[in-house]
Structures are given as C-alpha cells and as structure tokens.
Amino acid sequence: MTKRFPEGFLWGGAIAANQAEGAYNVDGRGLVQTDVTTGGSVDKPRYATFVDKDGNPGKLPSMGHTAKLPEGATFAILEDEYYPNHEAVDFYHRYKEDIKLFAEMGYSVFRLSISWARIFPNGDDKEPNQAGLDFYRSVFEECRKYGIEPLVSIWHFDTPLALEEAYGGWTNRKLIDFYVTYAETIFKEYKDLVKYWLTFNEINNTVMFLDMFGDKATDQDYQEAYQHLHHQFVASARAVKIGHDINPDFQFGNMICGITFYPGTCDPKDILENQHKWEQNIFYCSDVQAKGRYGSYAKRLWKEHRVELEITEQDKQDLLAGTIDMYTFSYYMSSVVTTHQFDDTASGNFSIGAKNPYLTYSDWGWAHDPMGLQYYLEKIYDRYELPMMVVENGLGAFDTVEEDGSIHDSYRIDYHRAHIQAMAEAIENGVDLIAYTTWGCIDLVSAGTGEMRKRYGFIYVDKDDAGNGTFERTPKDSFYWYKQVIASNGEILE
Ligand code: P53
C-alpha cells in the first residue's frame, strides 16, 4: 500500500518550447541558441554553428560557458548541418492533439515554457509580436478546456539570440530590463489564464557547468558566470514583484537543477567538500531566490575565484522584495563527491566523478536514484519550508516500437514508480509537496544531446535523429500506467 498524496495534488507532465514546438521561423519568431545548435549523442557534443568575420563556417561545443565565438563571428544556420530543434516535435501545430492526450491521462497540470523570441523576436523590440501572444493564449485556453492548470516557465534556456549578439547576453545588466518587460507583458496578457510561473529553468546550471569543467574554468569564467547569475536573480526578483502586483494570486517558483550530492567516504575532508558542493551548486541560487540575499558562504566562493561581483543597493532591495512562493526543481540523478582516488568513473552529465556502487546508471550514464529524491525533498523543505514541486523527472531511454505499433516501456514505469514512492515517503515525513510533472511527457528533442532516440515520453513521437518520420503520436504502456496513477491519486502504482 502506497502512502497517500494530499487531495488536490497536481499530476502532469512537462515540456519546453525549444525542445517541443519546432516552427522555429514561423509567425515572426526570432532565433534562439538551439536554432544554431546541431544534434549530438552520448559521446559526441552538440555544436553551435557560426560564420566568422571572413565568411567561413565554423562550430564550437555548445554546452557550458567556456567556449567563445571568435572575434567578429556571428551565429549562423549552416546549409549542410542538421538542427533537430527547428522542427522539434511540432507541438506548435499539434498542441490541440497533444493536450487532448494529456487530458486523457488525467493531467491536472501541464508545464510548458513560453518562447521569449516568439513574444519579443529580438528581445529589445518596442512592441510584442501579436502572433506569439495569440499562440500561447490558445494553448492556455486549450488547457483550461480540460481543467488543466498551466505551469509556465518564463525562460527555458532560450534568450533571444539577438540579445546574445547585440548585448553579449546575461553578463550585460541591460538584459534585466528586457526580461522584466517580457515578463510583465505575459503576466498582463495571461493574468486570468495562468497562476503558476517559474522564472528561470535550472538557473544553477551556469555554476554547475563550471564546476564540471574543473581546472579548465578560469577566474574570468567564474567572474562572468556569477555576474550573469546575479543579473538573472535580480531579473527573477523584479518579475516576481511585478507579477504579484498584477495578480496577487500568482505563485512563483524558482527552478533548480536538483542534484543530490553524497560524500564518497566518511573522511571529514569529503564531508566538508560535499557541503561546499551543495553550497556552490544548489544553495547559491536558491538561497538568493528564497531568502532574498546571498548565503554567508557566497563570500568564500567569490574569494576562491577572485570574483568581484557588481551588486547595487537597488539590487539588494529588489532581491528582498521578490522572493519566491514555492521551491521547484528537476530531479534526475545524484552524484558522489570525494577528495580520494577512485577507480570507477561515472560520466553522465552531472552524474560525474566517482561511480556510486549502490546505484545503477542509465544508457546515458545518469545515476538512477529515487531515494536521492526523497533526501533532496526533505533536506530542502527543512531549509526553506516552502511548498515544493518536482517539475521534471524522467528516464531518457531507447524505445522499441513493436510490429503492432505498441511500445512496452516497463523500464520507464519502474523509474517513475520508484520516484513516486520516494515522494510519498517525503510527504509522509512532513514535506509540503504539491505537484509532480514528469519530464518530456511526450517525446521531444534532448537538451543535452539533441537526440530524439533519448526518449522520455509516455507518448511516442515518430521522428528519428535525422528528422525522418510521420510525427504521429502513439501512447506507450507508461501512458496507461500513469493514467491509473493519476486516477488513484498515486495509490495504484502497479
Ligand atoms: P536531456 C543538463 C543539460 C541540459 C539540461 O535532459 C538539463 C540538464 C541536467 O539535467 O536539464 C533538464 O534532454 C532540462 C531539460 C532537459 C532535461 O533536463 O539532456 O531542464 O530541458 O531536456 C533532460 O536528457
């Protein structure tokens, strides 16, 4: 017998604009980074493509912040490259069919993101793009038709490319105003359709990537990353404040890439190192967003990397005035932290460093660790005592379509069952968890690798890594399983 979920618990799924919508150059949308990013795989990076000042094509690895465009180069779509996000899974044209399927599963919440570049194609436009505003209005109305609450990410890794090029991106303070204008526009536009908002998806990735690069990340990289983050914190806080003024019922979440870090041994050095890992990678962002000020350890981090952060008095006031209402995060994996030598290395995304002998790893090297989710929920709830949402969780896996068209994804069901049980345990132990939106409720383009075959969905999309396929939607076994989970409010997990 499973432990109980509270009445009114929100069950659903999550997608992001650039990974699902496609229609990248339709109805006035501006370009974003993923439009100039190629496909990759577990061992081949995605590349951002550009044309240099002499007109020669070039590419550089796209993840993280250490690679920079050569002087005078501009991002460009190259003719002989394939860009998986251009069409993605065509949610832009098929959202009615998709939302109908979500409703059939019984969703009470659907997380999606608004593409900033559909609303302000260049980011600094004077007027919003009406076609973009209309599109999301119909998406939200379609959700409402089925009683589905939209949960909207304002930014999901998709700053308009024009802002990157004209202003250098988030290291430039001007981005704060552009973001706030965009946020205010959508708050006013959708104030009666949307209640739940997330300001920046996985905001902490910026620091985590640097940490991952280890010694290759220079002090200058840290300087830029922390300033970039500071601008996002202020932008987030100002948006929250304005949003609350527009509609006091609005509920705002931050969005943290939630990794559970474990010390590799009981050597006090490992324990301390692990604590510092939590501070740098998790608390640095969520303390500012939840408490309205930097944690005491921030000084240590800045000192370590010789960072001189530009913070104004106004920034400090803004941060305090725009704290979040709920703590929302993604959860996929845990990671081991040790100062000791280790033989077996984990190499999947943020599951790096020493391999955890107590866990199994996915085909992409991500540690499968449901208890890590329970640990994360309990630890974070104790720190902030804010309602929490798990807004991403899922298993990227290869799926096989049987001859009769069915997809038997028992591995995905097992993954979600274990994580739902972990959430139930945390609730039992006092955590105020209010929602669960599984990642990629419909197959979509992987953010990390650009693949289609790394599938997360309960709904299969017929499209391959070269872009071939009918884009037809087919429910997998997990679809019917999740439907029953929702109908029983998490009681029936078999
Ligand atoms: P994929 C790493 C890199 C990029 C996005 O990831 C990430 C992470 C860490 O988990 O996070 C989220 O598609 C993100 C989604 C993404 C999902 O994880 O690389 O918010 O956009 O698709 C899964 O397998």
Automatic annotation (TrEMBL):
PROSITE patterns: GLYCOSYL_HYDROL_F1_2 (PS00653). Pfam families: Glyco_hydro_1 (PF00232). GO terms for cellular component: cytosol. Transmembrane segments: none annotated. GO terms for molecular function: beta-glucosidase activity. GO terms for biological process: carbohydrate catabolic process. Belongs to the glycosyl hydrolase 1 family. This is 6-phospho-beta-glucosidase.
